[in-house]
Amino acid sequence: MKYLSALFLILFLSSCQTNNKKLTATDIINKSITVAGGDKFDTSAYSFQFRDKMYRADRNKGLFSISREFLKDSVGFIEDYVTNNGFERFIDKKMVSVADTTANKLSASVNSVHYFSVLPYGLNSEAVKKELLGIVSIKDVPYHKIKVTFNEEGGGEDFEDEFIYWINIETFKVDYLAYSYKEVDGSLGLRFREAYNERYVGDLRFVDYNNYKSETEGVSVEDLDDLFQKDLLKLLSKIKLENITMGSSLEENQ
Fold this sequence. Notes:
The chain is of the alpha+beta class. The protein has a single domain (23-253), classed as outer membrane lipoprotein receptor (LolB), chain A. 23% of the residues lie in helices and 45% in strands. It has helices at 2-19, 25-36, 100-117, 224-229, 250-253; strands spanning 45-50, 53-60, 63-72, 76-83, 86-91, 94-96, 128-138, 141-150, 162-168, 174-182, 188-201, 204-214, 233-239, 242-246. The chain starts with a helix and ends with a helix. The relative contact order is 0.16. Mean pLDDT is 89; it is low at 1-6 and 249-254.
């Protein structure tokens, strides 16, 4: 039975490769975005809680406002906004001046949470470079394995980060992702995320993640699926989006 299962998987993968041979990395990403909500993201408004902070997003076909708010002892009620016009911080409803270097770091922090919350939305922007690495299997399920990198222009402060997405061949949903990034000390950090608790809120797909790290030296971000299947990754944390609420978009408020 073990050999029959292996043979079936090989035949299935061959069939998938034949049926999907004309699909490019861009085609696959676009299909994945459509399944997750597609154009509805472009005119959406929603909020969610992540750990001790509340996050909000409002979009209207290119216009956007993404934010977070939280209470910090000895400082007050903080609101950080990233919009088409840049970054702004308010403390107790009053705008405060922030140095450019600090504003860039705070903006990147806000962007990071919002970026991961709605993946794969955003992966069709002009700054994104996509490469189809092939079809692989995770837990006997076939996936398109796609590498994503970014152009320096328009790629943000962390444009050198590399991402890998495993997109289910049948559903075109992102079930796994991994990324590399620079640690504070300049070393290479690696993370692997396993999606769970999928739900659609207002036609938009949201998931939570099991967040893993590698303790194996000399591996790349492209190796993490193999380490995951060999049980060689350590569960670091759980990424949970709570209290997701849909609201009126910028378009509806105009």
